[in-house]
Structures are given as structure tokens and as C-alpha cells.
Amino acid sequence: MAQKSSPRTPAKGGKPTSRLTAIISTVVGVLVLAAFVLQQLGVIDLESGDPAVEQQSAPESSSADVDQARERLEEIRIEEEDDPPGYDRALFPHWDSGVQDNCSTRQVVLLRDGEDVRTGDTCQPTSGSWYSAYDGETYTDAQDIDIDHMVALKEGWRSGAHAWSTEERQKFANDLDSSQLWAVSASTNRAKGDADPANWMPPLESSHCDYVVSWIEVKHKWDLTADPDEESALREVLAGC
Fold first, then answer.
1. Sign of the C-alpha dihedral, residues 130, 190, 207, 88?
2. How far apart are the C-alpha atoms of 33 and 74, rounded to whole Å?
């Protein structure tokens, strides 16, 4: 004779398991809906734990750096760009030797900006790694790295350096005391050429705030002018920092 099936064992509190599951599902649904409504109202941020979102929303430069850049930009003379004839890189003697110990300016920047850099007897790096802020790539061969002049030498010439002495231009080309010298990938440095921010920005968008803050710092320090298109590009980036 067939056995009778046992009745469903009730959960604690006397409610069948199916009813308890339904209640839990309903509560969860209400909580999810409430969280969505609070997010729409701006009370909470459901994406705050997403590292990618956090990285996108946090600029490289601090708010104090950005505020200072805005103040400095107001002090830079805005003039139509002049390009006097006679430019030559030789008018900007660069990569001074013996800057630190027996290292040239270029080698000092490679040591400063690299990780775990080892050098030979002539201070030339033999190993290490370098992060290029322009493209977000890391390189392990110093031959793949260029030292970029934030404000290119020819851009400096167009912005006022044509009237300087050779000694002043040499100091500008070897300036280790500002944000003028960057260790970056050779490919991005050569893509930039002598362009200002109206005509070229790093392909890595998250570096743009830091880039224009540094650009303004150098132009301000060396009392160089900016042309109207350059000024507009700088203000546009700063507005989003």
C-alpha cells in the first residue's frame, strides 16, 4: 500500500517555507527600490565602491593645485602668437652634464621618475621601469622614454623666449625645479611635437588636469605668454577638474 506523503514542515513561527521565502523576496525588492530612489535623489551613491568609477572621478591634481592654476592663468599675458624667425634648438642648450654627481639633466629625470632604476658608471640607466603619464603605459627600457619639455622649446620661443639670453634659455631647457621636464613614452612626446594644449593633449584623458596645471605653472614661472586659443583650451580643461 502506498505511503502517504508527509505534510510540509512549517518554518519557525508557524509559517510555511514558501510563504517565508515570498516575504523575504518582497522585503529585498522594497530595499532595492528604496536604494534606487535614494540614488536618484542624490542621497547615496551606489557606485562608490567601483574602483573604475572612483578613478575616473578623482583628478590627478588636488583642488588646491587647480585653484592655484586658475589664479596663475589670470596673471599670464594673453597675446596673439608671434613666431619670430631664427629658431634653433641649439639656442636652448639642454641636458646639462654634471647636474647631480656625473648625471646629465636627462639622466636625473630618468632616475627621479623611474622605479627601481639601476645605472652604470656613466649614470645611464641599465634597468628599471617608467610610467608614462601621457598614455598610461609602463616601460622597462630607457630607450623607449623621452624627456618631454612640458612647454616645448619652440613653443617657449614663440611665447617670449626669443628675447632671452642663451643663458636664460639654457636654464629653461634644464629646469628641474618646476613641472617642465617629464619622463614619458617616446611615441607620445613625438606626437606632441611643439604643440600647445589647443592643438594637442595627452591621449590618457585622466592626465589632462595634471597636464594643464603643469603647463600653466611653467608658463607663469617663466613669464611666457599664451595665445587666445591656448587660453580657451586651458580654461575648458580646468572647468572639469
1. positive
2. 48
pLDDT per position as a tens digit, 73-121:
999 999 998 889 999 999 999 999 988 888 999 999 999 999 999 999 8
Contacts of 105 (CB under 8 A, 6+ apart): 94, 95, 96, 99, 147, 174, 176, 181
Q: Compute the distance between CA of residue 57 and CA of residue 73 in angstroms, rounded to an integer.
A: 24
- Length in residues, the chain: 241
Which H or E element spans position 148?
strand 145-149
Q: State pLDDT tens for residues 58-85.
A: 335 789 999 999 999 999 999 998 889 9
Q: Is the model's pTM score more than 0.85? A: no
Q: Closest Cα partner for 94 from 50, 46, 40, 149?
A: 149
Contact 190, 146 (CB under 8 A): yes
